[in-house]
Amino acid sequence: MHDDLKKIIESSENIVFFGGAGVSTESGIPDFRSENGIYRAWSDYGRPPEEIICLPFFKRKPEIFFDYYKKNLIHPDAKPNRAHMALAKLEESGKLKAVVTQNVDGLHQKAGSKNVMEVHGSVHRNHCVDCGAFYDLEYVIDPGNCENQVPRCKKCNGIVKPDVVLYQESLDEAVLAKAVGYISDADTLIVGGTSLVVYPAAGFIDYFKGGKLILINKSETQYDKKANMVIHESIGEVLGEAVGIL
Ligand code: ZN
User: How many domains does the chain have?
Assistant: First the structure.
């Protein structure tokens, strides 16, 4: 039990959470950037993930892109875990002002979080590259809407592209600016489930001016020395306990 963490949360008035893949792995969503994920991409597709889910490859080989994408980035049955639920509860109580996430699975919203900045986009939003028509996740995974795995727009037959930020694609400046704004106003920043190496993760921490930086990650990060509190345990268990989620 981390009573010290509980005390910090109780005394904070403006908490921001910044999370990475580790938050979702506890919901059974494997990290495609992990060692295992990279190995699988090489053995199944002959190339690393960053060469598949990148913009030029999407344009050149959409069939292979969507085959990989549907098998590795889409997890429609995944459910929020205690970390997601704890954060939703903290937002409801008024203490937590925003969740900034690198995950694209929408689990924070599923748990009830309202103010979520998805810096790498979301699998739940998709647009036709030609006419801009919007489609949800169900449309994209329905084989009836796809040709060779590639989802097609029902209005113009254009390719439907997920609003997931691909490699070699720029991040949404408006989302980034909003995230930076919340982080720089926060009195407590909880960083969880990220090794802080994926862009733009590391840069975000530099904007934090508050008093309490808390890192919760199973392995060490380069920011451990800068943090006021470091916990190398399961984020779901730690946050769940601290906020009282069973
Ligand atoms: Zn279209």
Answer: 3
Q: Is 108 designated active site?
A: no
Section 126-132 average pLDDT: 98
Question: From the CA of 153, how far away is ligand 1's center (Å)?
Answer: 5
Q: Name the residue range of residue 183's domain.
A: 1-28+79-120+170-246
Residue reference for tokens 């920043």: 189
150 CA distance to ligand 1 middle (Å):
13
Distance CA 206, CA 208 (A): 6
Give the distance (Å) from ligand 1 centre to CA of residue 221. Answer: 43
DSSP-derived letter for residue 54 is B
**Residue 164 amino acid letter:** V
Q: How far is the C-alpha of 210 from the C-alpha of 88, rounded, in Å?
A: 22
Q: Are 37 and 198 in contact (CB under 8 A)?
A: no
Instruction: Read off the pLDDT of residues 5-56 as tens digits, 9 standing for 90 and up.
Output: 999 999 999 999 999 999 999 999 999 988 999 999 999 999 999 999 999 9
Query: Which of 15, 44, 74 is the last residue in one of the domains?
Result: 74
Containing 124, the helix (H) or strand (E) segment is strand 121-128
Cβ(142)–Cβ(121) under 8 Å?
no
Q: Which of 120, 124, 127, 232 is catalytic?
A: 120
Distance, C-alpha 5 to centroid of its chain: 23
CA of 152 to the centre of ligand 1 (A): 8
